[in-house]
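User: quick one, sequence for these tokens?
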């Protein structure tokens, strides 16, 4: 199986956490696992030959259209929401523009990568222990279309790590459905 990790961040994210994510990934992940960084107007440092940096805003016309369409929409920026559930202290939950970068980078990667599994990892993640190739047998089972880190029944799913089986047609349909919501 071939695995590729993807992530995205902007200049402030690169400075706050993105470079640490890259550095720890390149130091502790198996050399056969590629990393694709969807950078938003910034230039991270990389050392591995299979680490690729793509300018997300140049690569995804759909993202540019979405951002422009919602440039002046407070609802799409988390500044408002349905009164019965909107919590101003948790505005990020309603910030569709903020989270659109993740959705459109996943869609772009799924369309352009030749890999068995694409793994999304949030850019504020850092690796502290070597990751063995054997971990992927459990994290990315060949019989699954998607994989994520569950946190039991009391909590919402942890979507800072999501695996996509790009050999599964239902997975590709899921990604397209996700994009269509935007």
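Assistant:
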């Amino acid at each position: 199986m071939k695995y590729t990790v993807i992530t995205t961040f902007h200049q402030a994210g690169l400075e706050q956490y993105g470079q640490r994510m890259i550095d720890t990934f390149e130091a502790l992940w198996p050399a056969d696992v590629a990393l694709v960084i969807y950078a938003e107007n910034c230039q991270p440092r990389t050392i591995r030959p299979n680490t690729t940096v793509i300018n997300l805003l140049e690569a995804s016309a759909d993202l540019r259209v979405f951002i422009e369409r919602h440039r002046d929409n407070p609802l799409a920026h988390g500044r408002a929401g349905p009164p019965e559930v909107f919590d101003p202290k948790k505005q990020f939950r309603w910030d569709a523009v903020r989270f659109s970068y993740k959705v459109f980078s996943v869609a772009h990667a799924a369309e352009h990568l030749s890999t068995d599994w694409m793994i999304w990892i949030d850019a504020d993640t850092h690796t502290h222990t070597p990751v063995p190739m054997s971990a992927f047998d459990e994290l990315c089972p060949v019989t699954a279309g998607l994989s994520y880190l569950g946190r039991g029944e009391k909590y919402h799913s942890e979507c800072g790590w999501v695996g996509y089986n790009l050999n599964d047609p239902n997975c590709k349909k899921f990604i397209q459905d996700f994009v269509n919501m935007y």
